[in-house]
Design goal:
By secondary structure, this protein is mainly alpha-helical. It is rod-shaped, with a radius of gyration of 32 Å. Helix content is 66%, strand content 3%. It is built from eleven helices and three strands, in the order H-H-H-H-H-H-H-H-H-H-E-E-H-E. The chain starts with a helix and ends in a 6-residue tail after the last strand. Strand 1 and strand 2 form a beta hairpin.
Length: 263
Amino acid sequence: MEVLSAARKPHDRRREAAQAGQRAHQDEQTRLIGDPAALREHLREHYRLREAVIGSLSPEGTTAFELLLDATNPPDVDEAAALRDLGRELADHLPFSLHATTPPTVSNHLIEGLAAHYLHEQHAQIHGLGEAHGRGPHVRRAENQLASGALLGCLAVRRLADNAQHDERALATQRQRRAAYLQFREHEARHRAREQPLSTRLRHGPETYLDEIDAHWLRDCDACNELTYPNTRNEIDGSDDTPAYECGFCGSRELRPAGPRDA
């Protein structure tokens, strides 16, 4: 008996180790399914599991899923509910193993509610930034994207506040340039009118030349949908008749002559 007992000990130890490993696996699976924050961290850590989930989702669902993983605050009510649903759907693959034979999949509808939640949140964030910093090009582009039903991605969300502050500073510069330009424009229109023969001056006042002046000096930035004024008074008053233009918002020099519009 002692010989048989000694022979069984290695087998018993292997069985006990396997049982302990199975219990640990089940405990970790239960923890991940029941703890949204822990599951989010698990998804962040396991690239293949994350990519498998993304492969099951629509483009909008993918953006919502990426926003969920990118969030730094504790999961809110909607995020926690989505993570619990994901945990139950992925239960057989938790904790994730590189040796899984069947790739994990999830139903796209699990993320649809979360996408609507983020869309509402982003609308509120953009509205707040517009109220605080003005509706510059970045805010307007974000508004247009959300109005189409498309979520802003992680990088765009992270940059929103900085971009809105940048546009606020640019708006201040824009107002200064506009004030300087309008002063020049009025002076230039009167000057051109005075150079005309008396008969012409009697028929056409300075306002006749405003469109001509604008066509020469103003530019449109297609990227920002903003009117671009000459950068400084020196460009207006100097001898260079074709100054270099640069959009005050995005810095682009790919500008085109402005079409008819209010200066």
